[in-house]
Amino acid sequence: MYQPKVGDGLEVLDTPSMIVDLDLMEANIKKLMDRILPTGVNVRPHLKTTKSAILAQKMVDAGAKGGCVAKLSEAEVIAGAGFDDLLITCEIIGAPKVARLVELFRKYPKIKIVIDSQIGASAINDALAASGIDQPISCLLDLDVGLHRTGVAPGKALTLAQHVGNLGHLKLIGVQGYEGHLQHIHSRDERERRCLASMAILTETADALRKSDFDAQVVTTGGTGTAEFCVSVPGITEVQPGSFIFMDTDYRNAVGSFFSNSLTVLSTVISKQGPRFVTIDSGLKSLTTDSGLAEPKNLPGYTYGVLGDEHGFLKWEGDSRELSVGDRVEMIPSHIDPTINLHDFYYAHRSGVIEEIWPVDARGK
Q: What is the torsional sign of CA 252, 255, 150, 54?
């Protein structure tokens, strides 16, 4: 029975397999913590990238404070796997989700949520009131700082805070504003300028809430592409980078190589279709294409393309070394979060020897 184990070399892995270079990953975590923590701002990594309670704990051990998840379903799985200091960063709307939130909060009272509407806030409050749970759930106002995806408009934040203040089962603890539209801007100067403008909206709103006697102790924001700018703004208390731990080609192309590509998808050449054209066993079920195409690691001159669900191709030009049937290649994902969602396990290695195997806890959630 196929069952890779700790101590095996990477050569025992069938392909495609998702592998992590521990030296590079650990260096990425250290770089992030060394950059952010001396500013006094907390790091609450976004676990929509790793989808792993084990990796969440590793980042806490390195200095992070809790974690974020995008969805209620992710929170259910990650908390159930033993990591429950979670902020759910997207709104929870609809009776089925609200009912699930109540039961999650009953079991894991550290769970925190965001709200951007009176309708959403009231629905959660009413469900908690009917549940018999006395403790209010901690919540943040989700503020639109330019992404226009979710979030209350800045000018309406005080009205929403007043509404929440009248609800007995919600406890307002701060504000969230995510400038996701800025993460992949290639010009560093433009990314910084626009990020600081978004941070001004966020911190000014937090100040306005405090002046009206609302609690805004938490002001959380930021991603891998902007966290370094966010922490320079007085009033920001927390940032939520996620992709930094593994990176991908999309982020690398935007922000550079300060963080290394520590995760790859190990693949095998299964057919040769021409003098400079081979087929590999990694297609759409192994590598996503929403942010462009994956790239082969350490194979300059090679280009990847998709040949279907199970297959991709590599072609090359010039003096690049030739690949043959049976050769193995490592593919660098173009978008790390959804690529991880396609795999069941991480095989974490050091110098080609597997040291740890981690389940992708929230795959498909």
A: positive
pLDDT tens column, 285-323:
999 999 999 999 999 999 999 999 999 999 998 888 899
Answer whether residue 147 shows pLDDT above 90.
Answer: yes
- For residues 56-69, b (16+ Cβ closer than 10 Å) or e, as one string? bebbbebebebbbb
Residues 188, 157 contacting (CB under 8 angstroms): no
Rg over CA atoms, the chain? 22
3-state secondary structure of 43: strand
Q: Which residues contact 338 (CB under 8 A, 6 or more apart)?
A: 288, 290
DSSP 238-264: EE---GGGT--HHHHHHH-SSS---EE
User: Among candidates 78, 113, 81, which has minimal Cα distance to 97?
Assistant: 113
Q: How many Å apart are CA 106 and CA 85, to the nearest integer?
A: 14
Beta carbons within 8 Å of 266's beta carbon, 6+ residues apart:
10, 13, 15, 16, 17, 18, 19, 328, 329, 330, 331
Tokens 């070394």 appear where?
A: 321
CA pair distance 36, 42, nearest whole angstrom: 8
AA letter at 179: E
Residue 318 has which token pair?
A: 């010039």
Dmax of the chain from CA atoms?
72
Whole-prediction pTM value?
A: 0.97
What tokens appear for 290 in the block?
């929403």
Angle at 353 between CA 261 and CA 332, to 5 degrees: 20
Beta bridge partners of residue 20, listed in sequence order: 263, 348
Cα–Cα distances (Å) from 161 to 55, 121, 269, in that order, read 34, 10, 57
Can you tell me which residue has the tokens 């998709």?
306
Structure tokens at 353: 């020897």
